[in-house]
Amino acid sequence: MIYYKTSAEVELIRESSLLVSATLEEVAKSIRPGMTTLEVDQLAEQFIRDHGAVPSFKNYKGFPFTCCISVNDAVVHGFPNDWPIKEGDIVSVDVGAYKNGFHGDSAYTFAIGTIAEDVKKLLQVTKESLYLGIEKAVAGNRVGDISFAIQDFAERKHKYGVVRELVGHGLGRHLHEEPQVPNYGRRGSGAKLKDGLVIAIEPMINMGVKEVWYDDDGWTVKTKDGLPAAHFEHTICVRRGKADILSSFTAIEAAEKANPNLFS
Fold this sequence. Notes:
The longest helix has 24 residues, at 7-30. Strands 1, 2, 4, 5 and 16 form a five-stranded antiparallel sheet that branches. The protein has a five-stranded antiparallel sheet with strand order 8-7-9-14-15. It contains five helices and 16 strands. It is globular and about 45 Å long. It has helices at 7-30, 37-50, 117-135, 143-157, 250-258; strands at residues 54-55, 67-71, 74-76, 90-99, 102-112, 161-162, 168-170, 177-181, 198-201, 204-206, 212-214, 221-223, 229-231, 234-237, 244-245, 262-263.
């Protein structure tokens, strides 16, 4: 069943989503070579709890951390660990916060220091595909219009692999609600988008093949060919004419530019 949100509920989801964005901003200020992904996770958890919220992901279906932190060929759901982040890595940080009865969810991929030109392009295309998908998230369209926009840009135009096994989703009182929002599909297919539908749109784009495999931890999803993957995510509300983006990258991008350890 699809749950449509009232204006008051959307504002509560916005509050949770902007807390997630602020958490990612804190990560952007601090992340650097030599820092471990476990340290990033601890920083994020402390920030969320200090702001009166609970990490959405922690203990969700047994996931033991606050953030999914996925490095290089890890697409999503990566386990934070004590391996140091290195110059040239790309690090996806996906995090959620639960406050006032509602979840927010967002993800951002950071480039550590100097990265290869083809990896820069992957990040740029993935982020752009997210916004192209959001452009289609308006009342009267269908889920497939979002899916097609992302796939057409990332896969057909840029020849990247669009992951099939993992998708965006509705969210609100629950972290994952209907409908599913794939990053591939046909225009005009899927559930009709109506005013008040809140969804997380999250392109997961591989530099090489679309196929993935699961690491021994049972969570971390990696590219089958070992090439890098990127992941960006916004929580949005479907509206008439133009989607309302409830999370924000603005402060994250500013912190990214100010951090000499990051490429922006």
